[in-house]
Amino acid sequence: MQPLISVITPSYNQGKFIRQTVESVLSQNYPRIEYIVVDGLSTDDTLPILGEYSNRLTLIAERDSGQTDAINKGLRLATGDIVCWLNSDDYFLPGALATVGDFFADHPDKLWLTGDCQIVDEASVPIQQPVRHYKRLLRSLTPSLYLGMTNAICQPATFWRRDAHAQLGYLTESLHFTMDYDWWLRLQTLQPPAILPQPLTAFRIHANSKGGNQYALQFDEDYQTFSRYWSGAPIRFLHKLHNRAITTVYNFVK
């Protein structure tokens, strides 16, 4: 039997993109979906749009202390065998949840999986293809490279068994940029992820993306997160070198 998949969407003032996000979940050709949207009392047209889907999703609209708090609220409400979160400016590709559900049904020993994702702009046009291919290459190698040297896991294309929370707790709410990386590293202590080559989702980069103009803070938090789980000098050196290279490239293209 295919597992019930719970999808959590943390939402705040993404009225420009929220309909595409919601439609991408509700239009999946998968019969067992629980969809929970946790909105922090958006002040744009997000809530009226979400209201149009009130009979097809669970909406929690209340103040929160940020994105990670909203995700945790959804995860604690979830009843699915498999869980994930999909941010309110990203979207699933057609057939994504059927691929995920079939994988977990066929591999009861696997705790979590991650797939590929497209990187798109505001108009959903694919961008940054070299970055995407580079991360795909890293994920074909050892976890010390795709989780140690850097975080090459695509967040919206990552799914795990809900019972992992009984062992590991929930997301670390003090983290604002790298709550996903911290969670991957905690999952990794139990089992490396299964890697799927096919794209499951689209990750959107736009003018108001969280990391767009706060990348220095993001890299600081990234290294602090990394340091909690990796102590070897060689991998620490590689992680620092990799972050420095990315920052240099980012400054150049900016």
UniProtKB/TrEMBL annotation:
Chain ranges passing through the membrane: none
Leader sequence segment: none
PANTHER family, alphabetized: GLYCOSYLTRANSFERASE, GLYCOSYLTRANSFERASE TAGX-RELATED
Protein name (Swiss-Prot/TrEMBL): Glycosyl transferase family 2
Superkingdom assignment: Bacteria
GO terms for MF: transferase activity
Keyword Ribosomal protein attached: no
Residue ranges of every copy of the Glycosyltransferase 2-like domain listed in the record: 6-110
The entry's keywords: Transferase
Native source organism of the sequence: Spirosoma linguale (strain ATCC 33905 / DSM 74 / LMG 10896 / Claus 1)
Pfam families linked: Glycos_transf_2 (PF00535)
Gene3D superfamilies in UniProt: Spore Coat Polysaccharide Biosynthesis Protein SpsA, Chain A
Chain coiled-coil ranges: none
